[in-house]
Structure formats: structure tokens, C-alpha cells
Design brief:
Oligomer: single chain
Shape: elongated
Number of helices: 3
Strand order of the largest sheet: 1-2-3
Number of strands: 3
Strand content: 15-25%
């Protein structure tokens, strides 16, 4: 556990351990490791499967926060799907016209995502 002195987190782990045999077994195994880079697979209900490389960085000013960046390989289906999604997000639902925005889809294949 990263936050050893966090009573709320300790209480939550205790409650989950009493309610779930599966949680208790997995927590006791401590089969956990930190992944700072890799590839994640997502499924979007409209554009389908997305394969994104990611890199996570711990923020020095806020030790409990991590920033994760996702990137699609250029010219692959995931990059095209994200471009399509970005174009939909930039279109006003009321008029069907381009919304005024300073954050149009980047041409680098790097896209902000929330999870």
C-alpha cells in the first residue's frame, strides 16, 4: 500500500476483505507491481478496439498524483479512430458546425484521454 498512514484506505481494505473472499485472497497475495509504460487495449462503443501506448509519470509537486499519457501509432486504425472521435467532439451537436476550440485533434497522434 503506497499510503501507509491513510486510515480511510486501511478501513476500506478491511471492509472489502470481510465482504469478498476473492478480494481477501488477491490482497493477501500482493501480486501487484507498478507499470510505468506499456500498451493498453480499450473498446469504444462506436469506433471499436483502440490500442494505445502509454507512459505514466509521478508528479513531484503532488506525490499521490500520476499523469498518464496515451499515444496512438500514426496511420494505424487506432489513430484514425481517434481522429474520427476528435472530429465528432469538435462538432456542435446543435448546429452540426465546427465548434470554436483551441484544442483540435493534434497531428502528432497524441491524444488526451480520461479513464
Amino acid at each position: 500500500m503506497r499510503r501507509h498512514g491513510d486510515k480511510g484506505l486501511h478501513d476500506l481494505v478491511g471492509e472489502l476483505s470481510t465482504r469478498s473472499d476473492d478480494f481477501r485472497r488477491r490482497w493477501a497475495a500482493h501480486n501487484v507491481r507498478t507499470h510505468g509504460t506499456g500498451v493498453k487495449h480499450f473498446h469504444h462503443h462506436v469506433v471499436g478496439d483502440l490500442i494505445l501506448a502509454y507512459e505514466s509519470l509521478d508528479l513531484r509537486a503532488e506525490p499521490d498524483l500520476t499523469m498518464t499519457m496515451y499515444a496512438a501509432e500514426p496511420d494505424l486504425p487506432t489513430a484514425h479512430a481517434l481522429t474520427l472521435l476528435a472530429s465528432w467532439a469538435a462538432t456542435s451537436p446543435d448546429t452540426g458546425t465546427q465548434a470554436e476550440t483551441d484544442h483540435d485533434a493534434p497531428e502528432t497522434g497524441v491524444y488526451p484521454m480520461m479513464r
